[in-house]
Amino acid sequence: MQEYNISRGTYFYAIGLSYKKADAEIRGHFSLDDNAKQSLLQQAKENGIESLLVTSTCNRTELYGFAQHPYQLIKLLCDNTIGTVEEFQKVAYIYKNKEAISHLFKVGSGLDSQILGDFEIISQLKISAKASKAYGLLNPFTERLINAVIQASKRIKNETDISSGATSVSFASVQYILNNVEDVSNKNILLFGTGKIGRNTCENLVKHTKNEHITLINRTKTKAEQVAGKFNLIVKDYANLQEEINKSDILIVATGAQNPTVDKYLIQNNSPLLILDLSIPKNVDDNVKDLPNVSLVHLDHLSQITDDTLEKRKAHIPLAQTIIEEVKQEFNDWLETRKFAPTIKALKLKLQDFKHAELETQRKKQSNFNEEQANSISNNLIQKITNHFAHHLKHDDSSTDESIELIKKVFQLESTKHV
User: Fold this and answer.
1) Which residues are catalytic?
2) Which residues are CB-neighbours of 238 under 8 A, at least 6 positions away?
3) Which domains does the chain carry?
4) Mind listing the pLDDT tens digit for each residue in 296-334?
């Protein structure tokens, strides 16, 4: 595969950190909320970055983009989070060109998810691409790549059973409750936070626990009411959070705050309380462990839970990888075409110049010159000649670069940039 040296000496990089080497605390240091993402994209635009994708979920924070050196992307990340370069170096990964492309396919296809087959990341990538496009930071290469990853993800969902059954941290949290709490249908459950993970958790709670004592709280009450309406659940004001926590047997925290929203001072009674923190950064202060009646479980622990279904999914990894290779090859074929497209376009323009000059000569020579017929014949010949060259470049076993340079030299073509 060719080097993706697209323009101005830049290469395609993927830089980031994930659950594999970075614990929840470190991931929290590099977490990007919506405002931080916008600031990062704005800074990238001002720094002359050509194309950039930014993703930040509970499991990973990653940047995919073009740069002369990966440090340009690392600096963008560190400038817009509380993470430091030193921390990043300890837990991070950096991929370049074809390795970066392969990594993005693996992430978008659920093969790199904390729970195998969890496809929630693909919606995040779609949102990231839309945000980048709004800033003019989505070049044709990256847009085509994202669309290819989305295509691979869809095929893997449809053609394999790697996502059979429920898969996600939200499902794992409910599975944990079912495995560790007796008489769960009669327990008081409080869900604090109704973002995407909160909504998914709520749906799994209703479906699997048969519990009618589920209460929702969100800082923006209308959002909680929208979720509650779907499942006929109770909604309480954010001001009642402490009161509701002290009525609960199980507290699930899925807020998007950058600092803890629950600590031991909110817990006033001595009844057993199970707290599941599904947030990055952590939204439950570790000081709740000081209370003997409280059990705290974080999503990093939940994601380690494996069941028979999860083990069975591993058997579908080879087929998923085959699908990825097929789609990736289509992307690479397109990329090769993009590589020589400017030369073919320049060749076509050169031949058009020859045509116009010759037609002008024949007009003067022939009194009964049939311009319409000559024009039609010339255009057909130009199309056949350019198609022939394009076919040669596409299927040339030797160096495409050498062939392109030869065509440019023979026809004295202007040097053209490709993206």
Assistant:
1) 58
2) 217, 218, 219, 221
3) 11-165 (3.30.460.30), 169-306 (3.40.50.720), 334-354+366-411 (no CATH)
4) 998 788 766 655 667 778 889 999 999 999 999 999 888
